[in-house]
Amino acid sequence: MTGGPDGAEDRLRRFATIWSRAVFPVTSTSLTRPEFEEQLLPLARRLREALLARTLDADEGRAVGTALVAAHCTDPEALSRALDCVDAYLVLYCGEDGPQEELRTRASRLQHAIAAGYAHALRERTLAEQEAIAQAALKAQGVVAQALHASEARFRAVFEGAAIGIGMADLDGNILQVNGALLRMFGVSEHTMHGRNVRDWTHPEDAPQTWKLYDELVRGEREHYHVEKAFYRPDGTVLWTNLTVSLLRDADGEPQYQLALMEDTTERRLLNLRLRYEATHDALTGLPNRTLFFERLEKVLGAGEHQRFGLCYLDLDGFKTINDSLGHAAGDRLLVEVADRLQSCATASDEMVARLGGDEFVALTTNPETAREVDELAARIQHALLAPVRIDGRELTVRGSIGIVEGPAGERSAAEVLRSADITMYRAKSAGGNRFELADPEADARAITRHGLTTALPAALERREFFIEYQPLVHLGDGSVRGAEALVRWLHPQHGVLGPDRFIPLAEHTGLIVPLGRWVLEQSVRQAREWRERGGDTGHSGPLRINVNLSPCQLTHPGLVQETVDILERAGVEPQALCLEVTESALIGADDDLLKPLRRLAEMGVDIALDDFGTGYSNLANLRRLPVSVLKLDRSFTQGMQQFPADPVDLKIVEGIVSLAHSLDLAVTVEGVETGAQAEQLRILGCDTAQGWYYARPGPPERLHELALADATG
Predict the structure, then answer these.
(1) Which of 524, 519, 544, 546 is nearest to 534 (CA)?
(2) Rounded to an integer, what distance in angstroms lies between the CA atom of residue 221 and that of residue 214?
(3) Which residues contact 329 (CB under 8 A, 6 or more apart)?
(4) What is the mean pLDDT of the chain?
(5) 2: pLDDT confidence band, cut at 50, 70 and 90?
(6) Residue 245, H or E segment
(7) What CA–CA distances, in Å, run from 248 to 142, 169, 555?
(8) Continuous segment of H or E residues that includes residue 309
(9) How many Å apart are CA 159 and CA 547, to the nearest integer?
């Protein structure tokens, strides 16, 4: 299909053509079919705009239904054909290649709105006709006194020729006359109808005020009333009508008869019910959909604090793998089987199962003992999923993660409850899946905060909310400052200063770590140049070195080497002044492709440090193939040296690592040095450099330069 404005207009006209060809044969109009199509074209345009709008406006659908009645499409078949066209062709010709499932849901809701608007307009038209008939009947009665034969003929013509059912009864309810239309509605003969009483026609679905209004009318307290009423036919089927009953008075104004006008709305009601069902139920599984579930949940939550609820939010584990490997058809069959099993778990009247979309389902219970009932419901769901599902000769294992929310109504909105259940479900999935977890307000708050930080990250980088602190690297031999590690911080507008542990994992998950890491490298290298330019004898040969952390995502970024070279060249800083720190876990099992950029950087003169060494359980023999020049020993190995005497096991481990590193021509840096005893012990063991609060906490770059000058001047 063409995607431009002209193409969209062509598809719209094609839809209007199909619509006019379907509806024109059953429309009472003097227009030609092309003229009728031009009349439908603006209605088609309104439907397309409503379909594609950001928020669906049901009033547009109702307006289209009203316009159909105005265009004389009053035959019941006209509405049915119009709705069939909208169902089959609106998304096809006006969908603009949007999300099909959402568009079809919108199309169903538009059909419901069209039918509602059509019903309302037709009812108004019918009421006008009924009023005219009633007036004609009253006029005919008045004329009886003057010209009986002429008026009788006129009234009989109206009475028998009307398309709606008309009946007359006395004030006791005994039926006196009915017309042919009413007899056809009930499927009975005139003989059967005579002698019946109006009060015989009660129905279980009568509105409470129906017979109260009737009593007021026959007592002369009201002139007419209008209700929707159901009647039983002799064959047991139900006739639904719009019923208007009027009081007829004699020449002296005394009540004498009652006149009933009936419009058969059975087909329209069934159509509305079908459209309502389609709009509130999942087309694949037949379960209630998100719309109906939210209606039920909001009703439960609005019932007051005496009401309690329990909700299970289920997401299938590994469903994407089944879809990808066996195809969507197999995935759909699996979802249908899961839906059947879930439905069997919620059989009580106060339990409901719905499909929210994809492989996500919810089960709701409103039993007073929900704290116990919801746990049992979750257990039943897990048990129901135990048996494998057989599809195309394969037995598929089905498992699910469930988040449970339980509590009193009235405290949270439906959206808040579902969000809590969703967060809890993902907590169950993160814990390994095939389990259920109970909602925890503190865990919810942490998850919401994480989500908020994740969404704020891109703008934070643009608004320059990040800054860098520097922690000095001190030579253990002479105590001089040899450089610093760059540690990024986030000055969040609401949460204050956040450490890297709060946002670096989020940046890695979203991919923002690449531009953030590039910014940290640029700022750090520029700072190294400023330290060099401020100069002064720092007590050792060479400039202060800057250590910058690299995340695993940055290692796989294809532009890592070139960007590093460009940053160093723009700042005028030698590669030897830069050390890139990579965690040991990121290099476990690394292949040559992953190590290639690190090797190129090492060949240029950039130092590569293996950070958190000793925590990754890597094979020490791998050190031979890694392009590293520095081992950064994890703080867990040196904590035992804070007290005297030091832990002898830790001493042996550190001594062995230092000996191994030096034999491989690697320098050793120790993190987390907090006491002078630690520093002295590490110096004796042969460690080269150290960092930690004993020397200085991370701080602004000026502090590092001051420390370096202080060391130089002694």
Answers:
(1) 544
(2) 10
(3) none
(4) 85
(5) very low
(6) strand 238-249
(7) 11, 10, 91
(8) strand 308-316
(9) 98
* Pair 503, 490: CB distance under 8 Å: yes
Buried b / exposed e over 239-259, threshold 16 CB at 10 Å, is bbbbbbbbbbeeeeeebebbb
Long-range contacts of 205-209 (CB under 8 A, 24+ apart): 205/230, 206/230
For residues 610 and 630, the answer to whether their CB atoms sit within 8 Å is: yes
Contact between residue 499 and residue 468 where contact means Cβ atoms under 8 Å apart: no
Structure tokens at 142: 């008045």
Q: Which residue has the tokens 């009728």?
A: 36
pLDDT of residue 3: 53
Q: CA separation (Å) from 485 to 67, 88, 388?
A: 73, 64, 54
**In whole angstroms, what is the distance from residue 334 CA to residue 317 CA?**
13
| Model pLDDT for residues 567-597, shown as the tens digit of each residue | 999 999 999 999 999 988 787 767 778 889 9
What tokens appear for 252 in the block? 């002296």
Give, to the nearest 10 degrees, the angle between helix 441-462 and helix 500-510. Answer: 70
* CB burial of residue 617 (10 Å; 0-12, 13-18, 19+): exposed
Q: Are 218 and 201 contacting, i.e. CB atoms less than 8 angstroms apart?
A: no
H/E run at residue 668: strand 667-670
Region class of 60: left (phi > 0), else alpha (psi between -120 and 50), else beta:
alpha
| Tokens (6 digits) for 108 | 């169903």
Dist. CA 14–CA 510, nearest whole Å? 44
Nearest-angstrom CA–CA distance, 490 and 232: 73
Please answer whether residues 453 and 479 qualify as being in contact, where contact means their C-beta atoms are separated by less than 8 angstroms.
no
Please give the pLDDT value at position 453. 81
Contacts of 684-687 with C-beta under 8 Å, sequence gap 24+, read 685/651, 685/654, 685/655, 685/658, 686/655, 686/658, 686/659, 686/662, 687/476, 687/633, 687/654, 687/658
What DSSP element (H or E) covers 249?
strand 238-249
What 3-state class would DSSP assign to 79?
helix
Are residues 239 and 229 in contact, defined by beta-carbon separation less than 8 angstroms? no
**Nearest-5° angle of CA 372, CA 357, CA 448?**
65
Q: How far apart are CA 240 and CA 229, in angstroms?
A: 6
Contact between 460 and 490 under an 8 Å Cβ cutoff? The reply is yes
- Spatial neighbors of 89 by CB under 8 A, at least 6 apart, are 15, 18, 19
Q: Which residue has the tokens 């890597």?
A: 618
Name the pTM for this structure: 0.53
CA separation, residue 190 to residues 174, 175, 176, 240 (Å): 14, 11, 10, 20
Distance CA 410, CA 38 (A): 52
